[in-house]
Amino acid sequence: EAGVAQSPRYKIIEKRQSVAFWCNPISGHATLYWYQQILGQGPKLLIQFQNNGVVDDSQLPKDRFSAERLKGVDSTLKIQPAKLEDSAVYLCASSLLPNNNRGENEQFFGPGTRLTVL
Amino acid sequence: AQSVTQLDSHVSVSEGTPVLLRCNYSSSYSPSLFWYVQHPNKGLQLLLKYTSAATLVKGINGFEAEFKKSETSFHLTKPSAHMSDAAEYFCVVRGLGGGYNKLIFGAGTRLAVHP
Q1: What is the pLDDT of residues A51-105, one digit of tens each?
Q2: DSSP 8-state assignment for residue B61
Q3: Around Cβ A45, how many Cβ atoms within 10 Å?
Q4: Residue A45 and residue B108: Cβ atoms within 8 Å?
Q5: Between chains, do B98 and A107 touch, taking CB under 8 Å as contact?
Q6: What range does the domain containing B16 cover?
Q7: Residues of A near B (CB-CB distance < 8 A)?
């Protein structure tokens, strides 16, 4: 079974430029997540989709970050304009719909995109 | 609110010796807890999970963790370290509120294994 795919793997930009990341989840996974992992920290959830709808974007800096999942499959995360503090690894994960009343199901992670903002 | 604290940012062991990575959690309800491993340039991989069944949870690659409610701990152990165990390990609690299935990660513990 193919895993979660992300591209590009690495990106270097200057501050105030724009950048976009792409994620293709595991086939059949209705739920998709974007996480930000700053060096030396654990990943932090930015946004969660179920199919093409947003379930949680409470930690997404909406003045500069945006994300979409138009057809309920692959997704893009955009930063415009980028700041130095956006340097991080951006992880995409996917899961099946919840399988119990606690809303749980295993998340599978992609390899991430490492962004460096100069 | 739910949170986890990983008590050591770095742990160094010799190959063949036991591994102990410590994690304390804070939760107002019966939590779901996980350990994930992250090897360099690879995605996060689930090692094991606790979801209110048996308190001693066995995972992949010989790792296990014990849920201790009285101590609010979920420490990760392995009897004998292997060189391939060198990686970053994250203790994780499932959060409530907002979207379901939200994972809250600790800061991570980097495990080094020496020959």
Answers
A1: 889 988 999 999 999 999 988 899 999 999 999 999 999 999 999 876 665 556 8
A2: G
A3: 24
A4: no
A5: no
A6: 3-62+79-114
A7: 3-4, 31, 40-45, 48, 50, 55-56, 58, 91, 93, 95, 98, 102-112
Residue-wise pLDDT for A3-33, tens only, equals 999 999 999 999 999 999 999 999 999 999 9
User: What tokens were used for B103?
Assistant: 């994972």
Superfamily of domain A5-95: Immunoglobulins (2.60.40.10)
**Quick check: B44 and A91 CB within 8 A?**
yes
How far apart are the CA of B86 and the nearest CA of chain A, in angstroms?
A: 16
**What is the separation, in whole angstroms, between the first and last Cα of chain A?**
37
For chain A, domain boundaries: 5-95
Amino acid at A116: T
Q: How many CA atoms lie within 13 Å of A59's alpha carbon, on the beta-carbon side?
A: 17
- How many CB atoms are closer than 10 A to CB A23? 26
Close Cβ partners of B97 (under 8 Å, ≥ 6 residues apart): none
